[in-house]
Amino acid sequence: MEDGIRMRAAKKQELEEELNYLRTTRSDEVAEQIKVARGFGDLSENSEYDEAKNEQGKLYSRIAELEEILQHAVIVDESSITTDVVTIGCKVTVQGPDGKERIYSIVGSQESDPMHGIISEDSPFGRALVHFKELPSDEKERKWIGARKGDVVTVEAPRGSIQYTVVKIER
User: Fold this and answer.
1) What span, in angstroms and rounded, lies between the C-alpha atoms of 56 and 29?
2) What does the alpha-carbon distance between residue 127 and residue 146 come to, in Å, rounded to a whole number?
3) 10 three-state secondary structure
4) What global pTM score does this model have?
5) What domains lie within the chain, and their CATH numbers?
6) What is the spatial distance between Cα 97 and Cα 50, in angstroms, rounded to a whole number?
7) Closest residue by Cα to residue 87 from 171, 159, 31
8) CA distance 97 to 115
9) Pairing of strands 73-75, 5-7
10) pLDDT cut 90: percent of the chain above it
C-alpha cells in the first residue's frame, strides 16, 4: 500500500455512501436486533442474541475496513488517462496464446471483478500490463510504465508463464 489504494472517484463515492449507510441505518438495525434478542430471556442460551452480536461484529469489521480503504484512497485522474500505455482506467485488448482477443478494464484493487473482465492492477495479469517496465529512478521511489500497443507481456500463472500481446488501448 506504499502508493495508497488507487481508485476512480466514482468508486470512492460508492464506498463513502456504503460507510455512511453502515454507520447510520445498518447500525440502528443491528442495535434493534440485539435489543429484541435480549427480550427473549437467558442470554447464555439465546441463539438470536448470539446471531445479533455476530452481525454487530461483522458490521464493525466492515466499517473499520472501509475507513482504512478511504483513509488511503488515491483518486486516479481519469481525464489524464492516455491511450499510449496501459494504466488504471483504461480498456486493453490483448491476444492470448490461443490467438483469441479479449478486452479487459484495468482498475484499482477495490473495483475488480475478474468474471466480467474488470482486472485489478494488483493481480498478476494487471501487474504484467501496468508495471511492464521499470524506469531508472532513485532508490526510494519506483517508477513504472505500462505496456504499449504491440508489447508482449508475460503473466506468471499457476500453470506457468503465459504471454499476451497488447492489441489496443482505449479510455
Assistant:
1) 10
2) 9
3) helix
4) 0.71
5) 5-75 (1.10.287.180), 78-170 (3.10.50.30)
6) 52
7) 171
8) 19
9) parallel
10) 47
- Is beta strand 118-120 parallel, antiparallel or unpaired with respect to 101-107? parallel
pLDDT of residue 132 exceeding 50, the answer is yes
pLDDT range class, residue 12, cuts 50, 70, 90: very high
The cell numbers describing 134, all together, are 521499470
Q: Given this model, what pLDDT does residue 141 score?
A: 55
Is the pLDDT assigned to residue 56 strictly greater than 80? Answer: yes
Rounded Cα gap, residues 93 and 119, in angstroms: 12
Which tens digit of pLDDT belongs to each residue from 110-121? 888 889 999 998
Contacts of 94 (CB under 8 A, 6+ apart): 101, 102, 104, 129, 153, 164, 165, 166, 167
For the chain, strand residue ranges (E) read: 5-7, 73-75, 91-95, 101-107, 118-120, 133-135, 143-145, 152-157, 160-170
Beta-carbon neighbour count of residue 92 at 10 Å? 27
Position 88 scores a pLDDT of: 85
Whose cell is 513504472? That residue is 144
